[in-house]
Amino acid sequence: MEALFSVCSNSLFSSLQNHKNKTLLPFLTSDSRLSSSQLKSQSRVSLKSHDFHDFPPLVASRRRVLKCRSSNEQLETSFDESESLKNGVRRKNLAVFVSGGGSNFRAVHQAILSGDVHGRFVVLVTNKHDCGGAQYARENGIPVIIYPSTKKEPEGLSSNDLVAALSTYKIDFILLAGYLKLIPSELIRAYPNSILNIHPSLLPAFGGKGYYGTKVHKAVIASGARRYSGPTIHFVDENYDTGRILAQRIVPVVVNDTAEELAARVLRQEHKMYAEVAAAICEERVIWREDGVPIIRSKADPEHYS
Fold it and tell me: In terms of domains, do 217 and 151 share one?
């Protein structure tokens, strides 16, 4: 089995990190990074392209001011010169996308706070400024960006402005946690093999446009052919639920299950699995086989993969 893998520690994550080795936009400095813990405003952030050009020159204190379009306040941020290392691995900057309560986001965030995930959420993106996930982010000092711009959310960003905003935060990985909009191709090109999504069925079954939330569980039960379901974590491409699968977990479908009962059972496994996968990507334990299949190296036994 090990002959299937081409593993080289020096090239670990090489395909995941192309976006980190180049400046995506001319106005970004090579070492700019926002620290969410220093935010002074709880209002949501709506950034436009010209805001990024307003950054003052680098000074000794390494403090910058970022304009908040939705209020007269300013978001003042300071940059930490040092990188937090764990076993020689830098702490990863994470963005999360949510449209609802964000329970998976909360689960991963709690794993970060407990020290199980060597990363930090530095920004949240949502299409609903008042959703539960956005409220939780503000309560925990994580800035909120609105995307896309709609009649209900006129302060939302364009796709190009979204890429620009995330670039200022020096994002390593993006986690989708119940985000119901299609990810723009501009973002996928900017973060190749670095965007993850969690889906509440065993893909490729019961996936695609229109399959989300309770609708998935109703379809699983109605099919009559399924005795098992469970969550899937996959990399994101330009279509719904078609990217390379990274992890799955089996959950039994019980006789006379309701969609709500099955959803609750699957969700418990989602929370555990997303935290485990977040830990793996932050510790650089995701390996890409020569055939393009991503696998996870065990933390306890580096010779074992799943």
Answer: no
In a domain, 243, yes or no: no
Is 129 a catalytic site residue? no
Tens-place pLDDT, residues 10-29:
333 344 344 444 333 332 33
Token reading at 11? 């090239």
pLDDT average, residue stretch 284-288: 96
pLDDT range class, residue 47, cuts 50, 70, 90:
low
pLDDT tens-digit readout, 210-266: 999 999 999 999 998 779 999 999 999 999 999 999 999 999 999 999 999 999 999
State the CATH number of the domain containing residue 52: 3.40.50
How far apart CA 108 and CA 97 sit, in angstroms, is 13
What residues form DSSP beta bridges with 182? none
User: Exposure of 292 by Cβ count < 10 A (0-12 exposed, 13-18 middle, 19+ buried)?
Assistant: exposed
Other C-beta atoms lying within 10 Å of the C-beta of residue 19: 19
Please tell me the distance from the alpha carbon of residue 137 to that of residue 143, in angstroms, as a whole number.
Answer: 7
User: How many domains, in total, are found in the chain?
Assistant: 2
Query: Is position 27 within any domain?
Result: no
Whether residues 107 and 48 share a domain: the answer is yes
Given the residues 199, 217, 234, 271, select the one marked as catalytic. 199
Structural domain boundaries, residue 59: 32-192
Task: Please report the pLDDT score of residue 84 as a whole number.
Answer: 74
Residues 49 and 173 in one domain: yes
Mean pLDDT of 74-102: 76
